[in-house]
Amino acid sequence: MRLAAAFMLIAIQVTHAQGRPDTLANPLAADPTAVVGGKRVFDAACTPCHGAGGVGSERAPSLDTGRFTHGGEDFEIFQTIQKGVPGTQMPAFASFSADQLWQLVSYVRSLSQTDSTVTAAPAIGDAARGEQLFFGTGQCSSCHEVNGRGLPLAADLSEIGRQTPGHIKVGMEHEQNPRRVFLGPNQRYVDITLQDGTQFEGLVKNEDSYSIVLQTLDGAYRFLDRRRIRTLTNSSRTLGPTDLAKRLSVEQMADLLGYLTQRKQRAAVKIDGASAGAGLSFNRLKNAQKEPHSWLTYWGTYAAEHFSELTQIDRRNLAALQVRWAVPMIGNLPVEATPLVVDGVMYVSGPPGDVYALDARSGLLIWKFHRQQERVNPFQLNPFNRGVAVLGQRVFVATLDNSLVALDARSGRVLWEQRIADTMEGYTMTGAPLALDNKVIVGVSGGEMGIRGFIDAYDASDGHSLWRFDTIPGPGQPGHETWSGDSWKTGSGATWLTGSYDAQLNLLYWSVGNPGPDFDPEKRQGDNLYSCSVLALNPDTGRLVWHYQFSPHDTHDWDSNEDFILAEVPINGHPRKLLLHADRNGFFYTLDRVTGQFISAVPFVRQTWNKGFTANGRPIVDPASPATPQGHRILPGVGGTNFQPPSYDPVRRVLFLNFLDAEATASYQSAQYERGQVFSGAHFSVRLPPSQEPVQGVMALDALTGRKLWTFPVTRLSLQAGVLATRGEVVLAATAEGNLLGLDARTGRSLWHFQTGAPILGAPMSYSVDGTQFIAIAAGNTLYSFALPEGQR
Question: Is 343 noted as a catalytic residue in this protein?
Fold first, then answer.
């Protein structure tokens, strides 16, 4: 039999290589021992993902439906096992013998073979009454979810209707087939008593020798240090109401079956109160400054200060800081995201749209969402992701192929997905969304690809579009006259950096990037609104309230995708609501955030393009500064700073930021637009040597005057990694060389550093769990979290 199988395998491989259909059946199909042997192999190799009996888990689908995504013929199943499925968690099992592979095929086939209880056509009742039972007296939702409703303690039933009614009916009768409700790999129910007498019952989602991630029966997570546990025993409880068939009448069981059979595919279901109640409410987001132990948005708070009020780590003990845990991410691309921490759970993203939920204290994985990029533009730039947003019990992430995805924060399951733009036109989405009151605001990348930028708002409950604001105005829209001819169609104006929000004024502030083409001014005469601008929008309607343009008709790629900080600062003895902004063009701006009125602008690096400002704040541009075909020196060069987060201390009124004081060559060549390709006009063959050596590092500015308080030089500044200041009077900064720096916030003196061994492209943030303050940052594709030793807190 072994020799025959080997010859059969050779014949199949030849047939496949020749491109003919693979229709050969399993040579062991008639062997009664094949299923038994296949079960042994399956139990040893496949249950960690597919579960005992192939009933599925969060890692892999069920195999007992008789339906196979990658082909249902015997040899197609054989090949799926042998070669794996690229881009998924299904590995290749090429080391298995031909007999083992065919035995597995036999066993997998047997899982979908039905007995008399399944083949008998069950009665199917009223789906509407069945839905009421599912979420009511039937108690099904105490363990199961359907489209985000219910608890994620057992299998998600959003697509259960793909199975036959007979299989679903058997699954409803838990006592007849209890294994159909599958607990994930290494998961178990436990009873825990802490040293202080507190008791928990729940599902162990992950554990190691020191920590346990426990999901209690209400769906909440508890993160436990084993030293706090007095007793831990495995629970004898069964999952779900095992007496369902006894408690419900025959008619009710038929109604419940009617509801489940209609669940053919996942659907976005509007859930009232998605922004309130359980999870992270809009009210908590508005008052994030009252939760310094958390980090609730990309900037920490809506005011975009990127500052921590925690004080455990300070300038006196910073030298003792050490790594507490490290978690590698999928793939080899560097992580550029800033993590969020909500109720002890850390959410962090990576390209092309992956999301991890971790125990913020121990780094243990709670769940992981992986999404393969569906369409890849070969000219795609900046394949990164800067973070997620959380609202209610939902996590929102934007993907490189331009989808906004809503995940269940408790399980990582997809609740809805909304396609936003065409990847092949040059659009990508790299920024972190901003969650407001039941709405999610997102922007787009692609400023070098000749896109037409926009800002979008989507309903957080079901993903439907609420409004769109075009950052490059078309015919009939205000500002269209600032574009010559049809240049507005490829005007860029990307919006990829997360905005800030004033809840009292109900104003959303969002930055707009460079015009397109970046360097060629002949293609787009005029001011080119709203490129290189800040927009103040009504978040309910998307209506423009005011704008200010920092660099009209920019020819140096000085996009304004930098932080907008909301500050309360006295001007001429009177308190003012201000917008503080260090722009890439080298100026530190102060604007009135109510009206957009220009108050002041002070250069924080050397500059040669601006001769001053008019009374209304328009820059007086040196006529010799725009780019030319021959090229000339310009200051600042690639930018005085970039999108890497600064940090603002609202008490001391000091702004900490990365800076680059360097020259560049202002040159261009004629740019020709081709759909989905780079459209910049960059003239790299013209480069003039600098007249002075560049200076780069970290800077502290007096926010009232723009005066430099101190600078700390570095050898390789990262254009992505930002800084974090804390109430403990320390500044954490990162470099492209892989160093995480700890500086004295008062003097800029170096107090501590840690070499991560990889480029740092993300910004540091801080949070606290169980009285311990942590500093987290990504380096390469690894996320690190630092804290003080136990005896020095």
Answer: no
